[in-house]
From TrEMBL:
Domain RFX1-4/6/8-like BCD per the UniProt entry, residue ranges: 1-75
Biased composition (Acidic residues): 101-117
Chain residue ranges for the region called Disordered: 93-134
Top-level division of the source organism's lineage: Eukaryota
Coiled-coil stretches: none
Species annotation: Macaca mulatta (Rhesus macaque)
Pfam families linked to this entry: BCD_RFX (PF25340)
Protein name stated in the entry: MHC class II regulatory factor RFX1
Cross-referenced InterPro entries: RFX-like (IPR039779), RFX1-4/6/8-like_BCD (IPR057321)
Phylogenetic lineage: Eukaryota, Metazoa, Chordata, Craniata, Vertebrata
One MF annotation (Gene Ontology) recorded for this entry: DNA-binding transcription factor activity
Amino acid sequence: AAWLDGVVSQVLKPYQGSAGFPKAAKLFLLKWSFYSSMVIRDLTLRSAASFGSFHLIRLLYDEYMYYLIEHRVAQAKGETPIAVMGEFANLATSLNPLDPDKDEEEEEEEESEDELPQDISLAAGGESPALGPE
C-alpha cells in the first residue's frame, strides 16, 4: 500500500495544484491499466504458472489505485470522493454508449437468419431442387 501511494504521489506531483490534475490522474489510470494488462497478456501467452497469483494481486492493486486516485482528485477539486466516483462512472458510460437501436438491429438479423431453411439437401445427380437442373 505504501509503494502504491508513493507511485501515485510521484506521478501526480508535477500536477499538484493545477487545473490539469484530474486529467493527469485519469491518464495515469489509463496507463496503469494498459501496462498491467500487457503483463497479464504476456503471462497468458507464456502459460506462466504465476498467472493466477499475479491476476489476484493485479485486481487488488487496481482497486486500491482507483481508490487513491479518486481521493486525490477529490482533494484537489474540493469535492467529496463520492462525487468524483460519479464523474468516473459518467466518463466510462460516455466512452461506451449503449445504442438500443443497434441491439434491435442485431436481434432482427438473428431472427432473419433463423427463418432461413436449415435443411438444404442435394437431389440425385448433384442438382439442387431450389435451383433446378441449370
